[in-house]
Amino acid sequence: MEKAIEAEGLTKYYGPLLAVDHVSFSVERGEIFGFLGPNGAGKTTTVRMLTGLTDPTSGTARVAGHDVVREHRAAKMVIGLVPEGSNVYAELSVWDNVMFSGEIHGVPREERKRRAKEILEMFELYGRRKQKAGKLSKGLKRRLSIAMALVHDPEVLFLDEPTSGLDVQAARLVKRIVRELNDNGTTIFLTTHNMDEANTLCHRVAVINRGRIAAIDTPERLKMIVEKTHSVVVSFSSRPSWLRRRLEGLPSVEGVLEEGDKFRLYTGDPPTVLEAVFELARAEGLRILSLNTSGPTLEDVFVRLTGG
Amino acid sequence: MPVGGSHVRLDFMAAWAIAKKDLKSYYARPGAVMFGIMFPLFMFLSFIVGRNIPVEQALPGLTSMVVMFSASSIGPFSIPLERRLKTFDRLLSAPISFHAILAGKVFAGALYGLAVGAVPVAVGTLALGAEVPSPGLLILDLAVSSACFAAMGVMFASFPTENPGNVTIAMNFVRLPMLFVSGVFVPLSGASLAVRLASLVSPLTYSNDLARVSYGVGGMMSAVLDVAGLLAFAAVFVALGAVLHRRLREWAEASGALRPVGPLSPPSRPPGLKPDANLQRRPRRSGAGQYGSRGAP
């Protein structure tokens, strides 16, 4: 069975600048595939090449078996694209936005109406179908933007930063929708900055840096790259000015990061650090409010791979 | 095959959908109303008020000028705005040809020009009692002129900007001189040879001339030649527009004007984490830019 996405040596130059450098990877059907990278790493350019918005300088890409350059119509027929931001037509109603998207994808009128109703109900937007899209909240616009990309029932959905700028409830709903779509067989290509999102949603993740793929694997296997780096997260009842310096001086602590009212102590030996933290708290009369140990996060992997 | 039939049919349906969408979205926007309706109307009034010109003599110029400004205002307004709002990507990601997108924009401008152009005709005939001896020719004039000027607007909208004002300003450098060499205000019969030669390369000349024939006030050329001239200009604008849109988009991406990449701001590395020796960034090549360069060794 052919892959959902296959990229072979995808390369893109913008004038003299090499934005994407011989990127090769494949995405299985039914996968949620995360595409991570710092700003300017080549994520958006890669997505634009995969969706036929820009031609690669060299290399090939196939979506559901269709070459995105030579068979661009067939490829675009199976692609749904949700670009970053809420690119809906503000002057059109919610209903007209979805119908328009169906029309330019060649969905027959009756089928379009049926799909539009079905999708708007799924996205809890049917009650607002007569409302101008410009009057919707940011979260609702994002939902509408995704709904517009689904009206032609694409096999592969490209989502660019789907939860960026959304509040917690809206972001959770979008993530739930992504899971449901995937459960129904849609392959999801997810571009994100949000490590938690990638960690909890994606079956596999690729990290792109400076136009090249730095790693591709499952989130858990990627974390093994930085397996030796564990951390102890502790918060105290008070934060005297000397506290950070004392924590940095504890045995086996390789680094300290302040995270709100907590300190994250990086270490390869969590038991030793735990003992030292208890001893410090006892000696200085500090009360420990919370104490946790954690393994490496996807963010640690990302930072390691991208050399941040 | 597309969901709904052949590629040609899908392109046509998509172009029509884009036109309907553009008309719903942009016809009442201040920019379109200002440059499409108010500007030509007041410009015409500034030339006509206080001068004793019969309504039949004034109407052809007013009609052709209104059609030109209104039909050519939709493309330069909608395309840069769609680039800014990223909705243009939605069109580009659809399984339709680029020509279908441009055709939709031309349809929208042409329909807008037709509707707005009908206003001076209606006012002139119904309120001011002007006679139209060749109504069929006038309808043909409105239709062909609208299509021609809509195509001109879409061609100008190839200018790679996200600001509609930039395109409108650039286009006014062409539209305004056209008013003075096309016989809109002063009949070409009394113009100098230089103006009459210049009038041949202005589509407004053919539109105005056809309107004069329709209103029965005498044209410089035959109606057939006027229609042929307008169609020829429309064909050139469409062909040139398609090439320019593609070339300038590529140029804009290459030069960074419309490049879809943001500033580099990778997250900071937590203390204690050192880059893995096996997974460090690619060594920067000597003399290369941020991502290396094509010509670097």
Number of domains of chain B: 1
| Mean pLDDT across every amino acid position of chain B | 80
What's the shape of chain B?
A: globular
CATH homologous superfamily identity of the largest domain in chain A? P-loop containing nucleotide triphosphate hydrolases
Helix content of chain B: 55-70%
User: Any idea how many domains of chain A?
Assistant: 2
3D structure, described in words:
The complex is a heterodimer of chains A (308) and B (297). Chain A is an alpha/beta fold. Chain A folds into 2 domains: 5-224, Rossmann fold (3-Layer(aba) Sandwich), CATH 3.40.50.300; 225-306, YebC, transcriptional regulation domain (Alpha-Beta Plaits, 2-Layer Sandwich). Chain A is built from 11 helices and 14 strands. Chain A has helices at 43-50, 72-77, 94-104, 109-122, 138-150, 168-183, 195-201, 219-223, 243-248, 270-284, 298-306, and strands spanning 5-14, 17-27, 32-36, 58-63, 66-67, 79-82, 156-160, 187-192, 204-209, 212-217, 230-236, 253-259, 262-267, 288-294. In chain A, the strands form 3 sheets. In chain A, strands 6-7-8-3-9-10 form a 6-stranded mixed beta sheet, sandwiched between helices. In chain A, helix 3 (94-104) packs parallel to helix 5. Chain A is globular. Chain B is an all-alpha fold and 297 residues long. Chain B has one domain (7-279). Helix content of chain B is 67%, strand content 0%. Chain B has 11 helices and no strands. Chain B has helices spanning 7-26, 30-48, 55-71, 74-85, 87-92, 98-127, 135-156, 164-181, 193-200, 203-215, 223-255. Chain B is globular, with a radius of gyration of 24 Å. The model of chain B is unreliable at 261-297 (pLDDT under 50). Classes of the chains: A alpha/beta (308), B mainly alpha (297).
